[in-house]
Specification:
Elements lengths: L18 E5 L6 H24 L3 E4 L15 H8 L8 E5 L6 H9 L4 E6 L6 H14 L5 E5 L5 H13 L9 E3 L7 H16 L1 E6 L13 H4 L4 E6 L1 H8 L4 H13 L3 E2 L11 H21 L3 E4 L13 H7 L30 H16 L6 E12 L2 E7 L16 E2 L21 E11 L2 E11 L4 H10 L6 E6 L4 H7 L4 E7 L2 H18 L2 E5 L6
Parallel strand pairs: 1-2, 1-3, 3-4, 4-5, 7-8, 7-10, 9-13, 15-18
Antiparallel strand pairs: 6-18, 11-12, 11-17, 12-16, 14-15, 14-17, 15-16
Length: 545
């Protein structure tokens, strides 16, 4: 008779009345976890106090680790172990005051049976709002029900009403009256153009080059081939090791020529000598080798867009990718030639780069580039993190910010750009940002995401405004002063409506010369998306539709 060893069943604790469990997903970089822990601990204390006033207790599912000095879940394996301490049906809070890697906790969240609440502090010092939206987008993609809420100090009536609703019903209802489906499109030249561009993409197809998927745990940024291929878009899966290997073949003189082009067009760099804390010429040289290498590989594979993950893997080898990314998305940029010097690569055009290998951005950037080019507009576009915002002079002004990669044109030209060193907490090898303040103007904003098992796009309008210099500096120093910033006012979309609706940590931004042209470009882009099978949602006031 055979003897088998049966696995022991994991015993989980039983849930208790009026008791919520709390977890915090963290970074994979321990330097970031340690630095952000005091902010996270204060936020958790505030949330716990608010629940106590409702007669609820909070149990932290894992204690602070005395060796690391923080209580973040810092790996997927750790997440699996922590979830063993949580009753499967317990109300669960995921509290985020910093950037977090969603995949650390998604396995546990996918099978958790109790109500889930994601909560963040509405503050700029750490990217907790960015982390919250990324986590929300991941759960939206996998069809997991959740509620979400945020607060500046967790004492306002709006937050407390929402928290009370969650304790009583397991859900929070937000206002979504600003969202409507795309109506029947009128017979206009813009609609005709959008549909023709969609037909072209479906017939001729396009290739996006992905230098490693899954950047920083962004499950929401990975689009399955079955969804992308229906649009006429296919992936060329590339390795960042190949990008690094190609960088090694780029001559110093080629990189220096690209730097000289930037400085000749007015960009300045804040150079120092300390590699650990200052920007150096060697760091910038590596970044421009990456720029040249990316275009050569794009030429090799016939790519239509490219995305570099960078944040894991390459960060341990070379300086940050942001400078290369922002240059790629610029129509006016240093020329790059084939290896034998006989051809200029992608001459006279921006080459769409989707930052952090976010494939929602890839679809968006590809469409934007084609629509804006066909309309005779400047197609330079980029993503921003939804970082933070506050009221100013009677309006809510968002801080949209990205870690350094914006086209020079978004700042008003390369002479408005400064190269600052990336912070060592996130970027140990340094590298230059493209720092500056986005010029005032009319913009079209959008996000392509997965919900209900299909690709959807939210499209909306906004204005980048100019703020007084002292207010701009206050906002930059409240976030990351080395990064480029955009002061954005959305059209008929409140702060809380946007936060409740937006299904990503990123938002795509592209300029138009005036409001009328922005409206026409939005309609053209919506028509193209609709033609290739993306469900389009209009968000806020969209003139003409």
């Amino acid at each position: 008779m055979s003897t088998y060893t049966m696995p022991a069943k994991t015993k989980r604790p039983a849930s208790a009345p009026n008791t919520a469990y709390l977890i915090a997903s963290g970074d994979l970089r321990e330097s970031a976890n340690r630095a952000g822990w005091p902010t996270q601990a204060q936020m958790e204390a505030d949330v716990t106090a608010a629940l106590a006033e409702l007669g609820w207790s909070v149990v932290r599912a894992n204690e602070v680790d005395p060796e690391t000095g923080h209580g973040f879940i810092s790996s997927q394996r750790m997440g699996l172990e922590v979830f063993k301490n949580i009753p499967t049906d317990a109300p669960l809070i995921v509290a985020e005051a910093v950037w977090q890697y969603s995949h650390h906790v998604l396995a546990g969240l996918r099978t958790h049976e109790g109500p889930i609440l994601t909560v963040a502090n509405f503050a700029g010092a750490w990217p907790g709002l960015v982390g919250l939206l990324g986590l929300n987008a991941g759960m939206t993609k996998m069809g997991r029900e959740y509620s979400t809420i945020w607060s500046v100090d967790f004492t306002d009536d709006w937050f407390r009403r929402g928290l009370k609703e969650w304790t009583e019903s397991g859900r929070i209802t937000h206002d979504d009256s600003h969202v409507r489906p795309l109506p029947a499109l009128p017979d206009t030249p813009e609609v005709e153009l959008g549909r023709a561009l969609g037909d072209q993409l479906l017939a001729d197809k396009a290739i996006i080059g992905v230098f490693d998927e899954g950047c920083m745990g962004m499950y929401n940024a990975i689009f399955d081939d079955e969804l992308l291929n229906k649009l006429g878009i296919y992936k060329e899966r590339l390795s960042q090791s190949a990008l690094y290997a190609e960088m090694l073949t780029v001559a110093d003189a080629e990189a220096d020529a690209a730097r000289d082009w930037l400085t000749g067009n007015g960009m300045t760099f804040r150079f120092g000598t300390d590699e650990a804390t200052e920007l150096t010429e060697a760091q910038v040289r590596w970044q421009l080798k990456m720029y040249i290498a990316a275009l050569r590989i794009a030429d090799d594979f016939g790519l239509d867009a490219v995305g570099i993950q960078y944040q894991q893997g390459l960060k341990d080898l070379v300086p940050a990718s942001d400078l290369a990314e922002g240059i790629l998305n610029s129509t006016e940029r240093p020329p790059v030639f084939s290896r034998d010097g006989s051809r200029e690569l992608f001459a006279g055009r921006a080459f769409p780069h989707f930052n952090e290998a976010d494939e929602g951005v890839a679809v968006d950037a590809l469409a934007t580039d084609r629509v804006w080019t066909a309309m005779g507009l400047v197609p330079d576009n980029t993503l921003h993190d939804v970082r933070w915002g506050e009221d100013y002079d009677g309006r809510f002004v968002w801080v949209y910010e990205i870690s350094g990669s914006v086209p020079g044109s978004h700042l008003g030209g390369w002479d408005k750009a400064e190269g600052w060193r990336q912070g060592p907490v996130f970027f140990p090898a340094g590298g230059s940002t493209i720092n500056g303040v986005s010029k005032p103007g009319e913009v079209v904003l959008s996000r392509v995401f997965i919900a209900d098992g299909i690709l959807q796009a939210d499209i909306f309008r906004g204005s980048v405004i100019e703020l007084p210099a002292e207010e701009t500096q206050r906002r930059k120093h409240a976030t990351n002063p080395e990064w480029p910033i955009a002061h954005v006012v959305l059209h008929d979309i409140s702060r809380d409506q946007f936060m409740a609706r937006h299904k990503a940590n990123h938002v795509q931004l592209v300029y138009a010369p005036d409001a009328e042209t922005a409206g026409k470009a939005l309609v053209t882009k919506a028509a193209m998306f609709d033609r290739i099978g993306i469900k389009v949602n209009l968000v806020g006031r969209v003139d003409g539709l």
